[in-house]
Amino acid sequence: MAFVYENITNNLSSDTGIGVSLSNLDSVFSTVYTPQQQVHENLKTLLLTRIGERYMQPTYGTRLLEIIFQPNTYKLKPEIEDIVVESINFWLPYILIDSIDITTAEDDPNLPYQIRVSILYSVQNFEEKTITIFANNDNTLSVV
User: Fold this and answer.
1) For position 26, what pLDDT does the model report?
2) Burial group, residue 94, by CB count within 10 angstroms (0-12, 13-18, 19+)
3) For residue 116, is it within any domain?
4) Nearest Cα residue to 20 out of 45, 3, 2, 55
5) Residue 13, in any domain of the structure
6) Residue 39 predicted with pLDDT over 70
């Protein structure tokens, strides 16, 4: 499958919404105004969706939520990295993964989380961004 990136001029103003975000705490949805924001939201949605959870797309998502709270063994980091890379390459092939940094409490005893997964990514013609998932000690997730 090939993708062609073209610069398209359009008449969208900066107050024209192009998508939705689930990260607004005041309501269920908030409006996304830039392609960069929409890419970030798409990535966040993919990573936090369990396989089989999405109606009419039973293979969409990742197994990340299944394993992120598993005991920290030598296999945990490579397994998380494989899950992230495979799902992004399949579902969001326009996202280029520049690096994945996985830090556990064993790596950094001062880390206030059980595990931190930081993904540095880019999309052609956009600047690099980072999405970070924190597995908290109270078995909750935070995504920034």
Assistant:
1) 58
2) exposed
3) yes
4) 45
5) no
6) yes
